[in-house]
Design a protein that fits this description.
By secondary structure, this protein is α/β, with parallel strands linked by helices. The protein has 30 helices and 31 strands. The strands form 9 sheets. A 6-stranded mixed sheet has the order 12-14-13-15-17-19, with helices on both faces. A 5-stranded antiparallel sheet has the order 2-3-4-5-6, covered by helices on one side. Helix 11 (348-360) packs across helix 19, helix 15 runs parallel beside helix 17 (491-497) and helix 20 packs across helix 21.
């Protein structure tokens, strides 16, 4: 029979039990010794048990066999690591009972064993040692004085008994034994190896602590508790194999890295017949009377730890690939652009955006710029990644591993752990190949991307059982390269970090550019390689030059602000997540009419994208030597916007752009070489995300989809055309400019919605945007209302209040309502 918990088994067998530790542990009468005090503890989820009266213990199999139940099994639960469990403490009554049994019931051989370890009765009482019938028990207390574990020493008089010690199952988390002594602020403390040595040193008047998990388990997170200690000694076993000595150096190094000096105590070498010599061995050899003075002499001789030159070399972070010397004389942007376009024709915009993102790491921007260059293999994107690798402000890698940013491992004397995140601060982090990262195991990829999501907040902290809490603040830009196929295949992954990344599709190569590239390739085998090195030096030198200049760009104009606001909204809508399912119904003629039903939808807020685009536009102007954002920068911004969304949606919008903002599913299918069904579903997605509207056809006339009015001009017009239309206060529907007389007539005769103001006044950009959004919501709420209804009258009352307030405060120049309204 399958049981989900041990409690179910006990209930089935009608066994009385007590629930303890918040339901995590159960207490029963031991099936072996039958002691009525219910001292047998069982982990409810695993069936592991231990009796603190007779000392018997084991797993689920042993428990059910004790009740003559052969066929029972317990469901397997994902087991937590002992380091991760947050368990309640043991009852003090149990500790007292175990100690009383040590004095009353333990065989004389057990007391002789403790005596042989030189422990006095007072020390035994102070540390509350106990006996459970099979094991000597050492209670392990935390800093609050709660007993969180028992270290068990099997009866040493039994020949087959284990020579080591073990913890109660499920409670083996490493702790700092005798931690409470640090709260007393002693002048000196000895960090030793093992609970027995720790108790003995305390007995001789030395404040001492130790890890409960062995020599190599001292945790960095404990060092904070030592900060007020005047002198710290480290005294580990002197092992023939050198394990204790290496562990002592490793622990000393942890303190050294925190700026705390420690002193290494060297115990005498073990004799030929001995494998090691520990503190207890030393005291026994010196005798009870002289051992104290002899050990004090060792403390006096102890030397302060300093890492050797060899150790220092080992701990130095590995550098990136060596950087070549750069130009020291000023370089003009035109010179850099000329070098790049000779090697890679038609890539002026790529150069600008790469320089802008890389340089952004040096400025106090409100957000970090992370950009992926997207194109097929051999398109030149990795060339641009290499072009900037020699600048001081870049950190270049080919790819990443799972825990690259902050490792959970712990440094050893022979091997230093390096965290990548602090090395990236104030750098542009360049990864040549994101494709290899996406090819990692799914779990590893999700872990890496999950870390990036948190790192984007400019700070990141993680906890590991080996290092404790490790955290860094780091501000860096990022440029990576990836193929479209990889990006499309792993769109689920990108949805995790999508709002944090911008993308840029490399420009298509014209026939003229192809001819220039072919000419270069066939001109000589070594010429291109020389040009690559020369171009890399120019681009890196220029990046280093501009990154040291102050970012001085004028405040964004009203038009630029509005353009970026529309751009951010379009990104937010097109990166939305939407779940749909196909459905159908029969019309009046009995024909099946198919449609898509929206199950769920999530559209991000546009604020993050807005900050990203604002920062990018300013840096684009800066890297070419301008002090204000211009139409040329907005042209690149538009390309980034149309690239920073799923590839199929981006392609659909570009097709709509070429077709004046309106297209059918069949037309999209023919242009994109996918089925009509797939094209229709894509268009329905964009419709659900409020990017398109659908004009239903009838009979032989197919339904078409067109861009919503809000985004139509942004997508269909160039930034120059967009500026011309909106500076004249006119919206167009046919992508053509209008004369001044046409503009005047348009204001009088057509519906006039929101026009962005020329002057800002005392109100912020966000004030205007929020008011515009409110006005838009009211207009949408009007749809479907009866013109003679009370609701319709209330709508116009609210709408005119907003309109008048906006006009009076200079937030909107005017609103006009058509004659029809």
């Amino acid at each position: 029979m399958l049981y989900k918990t041990a409690e179910q088994f006990l209930q089935k067998k009608n066994i009385d039990y007590i629930i303890g530790s918040g339901g995590y542990e159960l207490r029963i009468i031991c099936p072996s010794c039958n002691n009525p005090k219910q001292k047998c503890y069982i982990e409810n989820e695993t069936g592991m048990f231990h009796c603190f009266h007779c000392g018997i213990g084991g797993g689920w199999k042993g428990l059910i066999e004790a009740y003559n139940e052969q066929d029972a099994t317990i469901a397997e639960f994902p087991q937590e690591k002992e380091e991760d469990r947050d368990l309640p403490p043991f009852d003090f009554e149990l500790i007292e009972t175990n100690q009383q049994r040590l004095f009353d019931e333990a065989p004389l051989e057990i007391m002789s064993y403790l005596d042989d370890r030189l422990l006095s009765g007072d020390t035994i009482i102070k540390y509350e040692l106990g006996w459970d019938g099979r094991n000597i028990i050492i209670p392990i207390f935390d800093g609050k004085g709660d007993c969180m574990n028992f270290k068990l020493k099997p009866d040493p008089t039994i020949p087959s008994s284990s020579k080591g010690m073990f913890s109660v199952r499920g409670r083996g988390r490493k702790r700092l034994f005798n931690e409470k002594v640090l709260l007393e602020n002693p002048e000196t403390v000895i960090v030793c190896e093992g609970e027995w040595d720790c108790m003995l040193l305390d007995q001789y008047g030395h404040a001492a602590v130790t890890s409960t998990a062995g020599a190599n388990s001292f945790d960095e997170s404990w060092i904070e508790a030592f900060k007020n200690i005047e002198k710290i000694f480290i005294c580990f076993d002197n092992d023939r194999n050198g394990v204790g000595q290496q562990a002592a150096l490793k622990t000393a190094k942890m303190f050294y890295d925190k700026g705390i000096v420690t002193y290494i105590v060297k115990l005498p070498n073990p004799e030929e017949t001995e494998k090691k010599l520990d503190v207890t061995d030393f005291f026994k050899k010196k005798g009870a009377k002289s051992a104290g003075n002899a050990f004090t002499k060792l403390l006096i001789k102890a030397k302060a730890y300093k890492p050797t030159e060899k150790a220092k070399r080992k701990e130095e972070p590995q550098s990136t690939i060596p950087k070549q010397p750069l130009f020291t004389v000023p370089i003009l942007y035109s010179e850099v652009e000329e070098k790049v376009t000779q090697l890679l024709p038609g890539t002026q915009d790529v150069l600008k955006i790469v320089l802008a993102v890389a340089a952004s790491s040096q400025y106090q921007l409100s957000t970090m710029l992370w950009l992926l260059l997207v194109d097929v293999p051999s398109s030149g994107k990795t060339d641009f990644a290499r072009f900037i690798k020699d600048a001081e402000c870049t950190y270049y890698l080919d790819n990443l591993t799972q825990n690259a940013f902050v490792s959970g491992e712990r440094s050893t004397e022979s091997e230093r752990v390096h965290d990548l995140l602090p090395l990236l601060n104030q750098k542009c982090f360049v990864v040549k190949d994101w494709t290899s990262i996406f090819s990692l195991d799914e779990k590893m990829t999700k872990k890496l991307l999950g870390d990036l999501v948190n790192i984007y907040d400019k700070e990141f902290a993680k906890f590991s059982s080996r290092r404790g809490i490790v955290g860094y603040e780091s501000f860096f830009s990022h440029i990576g390269c990836v193929t479209p196929a990889t990006l499309n295949k792993h769109q689920t992954y990108m949805n995790m970090v999508g709002p944090r990344f911008l993308c840029y599709n490399m420009p298509k190569t014209s026939e003229e550019d192809e001819r220039a590239s072919l000419s270069l390739i066939f001109s000589g085998t070594g010429k291109r390689s020389e040009m690559e090195q020369d171009t890399r030096k120019y681009v890196s030198s220029y990046l280093q030059q501009i990154s040291k200049k102050e970012l001085s760009v004028k405040p964004l104009s009203e038009f630029v602000q509005y353009y970026l606001w529309l751009a951010a909204n379009l990104i937010a809508h097109c990166r939305g997540i939407i779940l749909m399912q196909s459905a159908s119904f029969k019309d009046e003629a009995g024909n099946d009419v198919k449609y898509y039903d929206i199950l769920d939808m999530q559209i991000e807020k546009p604020w993050r994208a807005l900050y990203q685009l604002m920062a990018l536009s300013q840096c684009l102007a800066h890297v070419v030597g301008r002090d204000e954002v211009t139409i040329d920068d907005l042209r690149i911004i538009k390309d980034v916007v149309l690239s920073s969304m799923p590839a199929d949606r981006s392609k659909a919008l570009r097709m709509l752009q070429e077709h004046n903002g309106i297209i059918t599913a069949k037309e999209l299918s023919d242009l994109s070489e996918v089925s009509t069904k797939t094209s229709r579903r894509l268009l329905e997605e964009l419709r659900g995300l409020k990017v398109l509207i659908k004009n239903s056809g009838s009979g032989s006339i197919a339904s078409d989809y067109q861009i919503v009015e809000k985004f139509r001009d942004f997508v269909c017009l160039s930034p120059t055309e967009f500026l011309s239309v909106y500076s004249s206060g006119t919206e167009t529907t046919d992508n053509t400019s209008q004369s001044d007389s046409q503009v005047s007539n348009s204001i009088e005769d057509s519906t006039k919605k929101e026009i962005f103001p020329v002057t800002l006044g005392e109100y912020t950009f966000r004030d205007r945007v929020e008011l515009m959004e409110k006005e838009k919501e009211l207009r949408e709420a009007r749809e479907g209302l009866d013109r003679n209804s009370t609701e319709y009258a209330l709508f116009y009352h609210s709408w005119f209040e907003i309109r008048d307030w906006g006009v009076n405060n200079g937030i909107f120049p005017f609103f006009a309502v058509s004659n029809n309204e």
